[in-house]
Structure formats: C-alpha cells, structure tokens
Specification:
The chain is mainly alpha-helical and 131 residues long. Helices cover 83% and strands 0% of the residues. The protein is built from five helices and no strands. Helix 1 packs antiparallel against helix 2, helix 1 packs across helix 3 and helix 2 runs parallel beside helix 5. It is globular and about 45 Å long. The relative contact order is 0.15.
Length: 131
Amino acid sequence: MLYAHAAIVWIILLVLAILNAGLREKVYQPRVGEQTGHVISTIVFVMLVWTVVYAFLALLDHLPSVSQLWAIGAGWTAATVAFEFLFGHYVAGHSWARLCHDYNIFRGRFWVLVLLSTLIAAPVLAARMRG
C-alpha cells in the first residue's frame, strides 16, 4: 500500500511540474529571460517537491524504513526521467538534444537538482526531519 500511495504522490508531483513549467513559460521567462526563469522554476519546484513529500510522510501511520524511502525516491526519479524523455520526445516532439539540455549543469542548467531532491533529499531527509 505504501508504494501505491507513493505512486499517487508522484502523479501529484507530475501535475505540479506541468503547472510549474507553465508558470515559468508565462510568468518568469518573459520578465527575466530563459536562463533565470529556468533557475527560478527549478528552485520553486524543489520547494514543491519537499512540501509534498513532507505532507505525504505526515499522513502515513508510521515512517517507512530507510530502504523503503530510498526505493520510493529511486522510483520517483526513474519515473520522472522516463516521463520527461518518453513524453517529451514521442508526444511533445522535442529532440533528444533539447531534452538533454536541462541536464547540463556546466551550462547553467539545474534540473538535476530536482532529480537529486526527488531521489535523496525529499524522501530520506524529509523523513529524518519528521523524526
């Protein structure tokens, strides 16, 4: 049941990611440019991930084990990358190069921070914060 709830949380995160991208495209980027809009959007989404995961853990009867938390984080991260590349390429029609662009931290792209937060920080560290 824990993993089913975690899957629902990932769907919530997916919806928030799409809304955040829309906010970036319509609000941040026109005012501050593409790169700064990307950074703002990344920071906002990392905060959203933490908030949702913290709330998810608060709703559970007991905290999952560390191995379960790692499994949840790995599942969320794998689902995120798979969705981004499969949907992005086959449905949205983006090139593989464009999809890989946000993973290049040496070019000021910080999307990898979202993935690290989803993998490690949100589930494991949020659980530690919850006690």
